[in-house]
Specification:
Largest sheet: 6 strands, antiparallel
Structural class: alpha+beta
Strand content: 25-35%
Strand order of the largest sheet: 1-6-7-8-10-9
Number of domains: 2
Radius of gyration: 17 Å
CATH class of the largest domain: Alpha Beta
CATH superfamily of the largest domain: BMC (bacterial microcompartment) domain
CATH topology of the largest domain: Alpha-Beta Plaits
Length: 217
């Protein structure tokens, strides 16, 4: 039986059709970056996955993406959530299209999985078959290569990554040493799509075993 899904919520969205030059300088925007779309989400890794998807569906680039310290439970306000993402493009229509991709990804494609009924213990074991410009740059790989995006609480992340790397012909190209800003850990692994899926499955299985027997070693 599959684990229960934990979907993120998009808390706030705004478009800036024609960004002010002084603000553009702060984000080091290129000359063709005239419009921005800004959003906040309750789950950072889902938000980053959605940003990457936006770069595949619209003529946009990710110009800012940050997690907030301690997570959504300790947010600075009711619309802050766990992360902020900003995409830039040449026109309002392009950033709107990018934002629509973000919304669709968050609503249906990317999600954490709950290891307990209270949903207080969760993991992210998500395979991206074809990376966009954002996550490929983060991982230091070519655009279009697959990745396994693996996130969990600190101990679980380390143990699960070891299991994932041993289960398939994959390479870890990005390590998120625990604790991250949101007190999780994990990494980005690359290989063939099937290898990334095998790694994600092994990551999930290893952490499920920990959740069922946390002290037994």
């Amino acid at each position: 039986m599959g684990l229960e899904r934990i979907h993120a919520d998009i808390l706030a969205v705004r478009l800036i059709p024609n960004v002010d030059p002084d603000l553009a300088k702060q984000f080091q925007l290129q000359a063709h970056h005239r419009s921005l779309a800004i959003f906040t989400s309750t789950v950072d890794d889902v938000g980053y996955t959605a940003l990457d998807e936006a770069t595949k569906r619209a003529d946009v680039e990710v110009v800012y993406a940050r997690s907030f310290y301690a997570g959504a439970a300790h947010a600075s306000g009711p619309l802050s959530g766990e992360m902020i993402g900003i995409i830039a493009g040449p026109s309002p229509d392009e950033v709107k299209s990018g934002m629509e991709a973000v919304l669709q990804t968050v609503e249906s494609d990317a999600y954490f999985e709950a290891l307990d009924q209270g949903k207080t213990h969760a993991i992210y074991a998500h395979v991206i078959s074809r990376t966009g410009s954002y996550l490929s740059q983060e991982a230091g790989i070519k655009i279009g290569e697959p990745i396994a995006y693996l996130i969990a609480p600190p101990l679980e992340a380390v143990y699960g990554l070891d299991a994932a790397l041993k289960a398939a012909d994959v390479e870890m190209v990005k390590f998120f040493g625990p604790p991250s800003e949101t007190n999780f850990g994990g990494g980005l692994l690359t290989g063939s799509q099937s290898a990334c899926q095998a790694a994600a499955d092994a990551f999930r299985d290893a952490i499920m075993e920990i959740s069922q027997n946390p002290i037994k070693y």
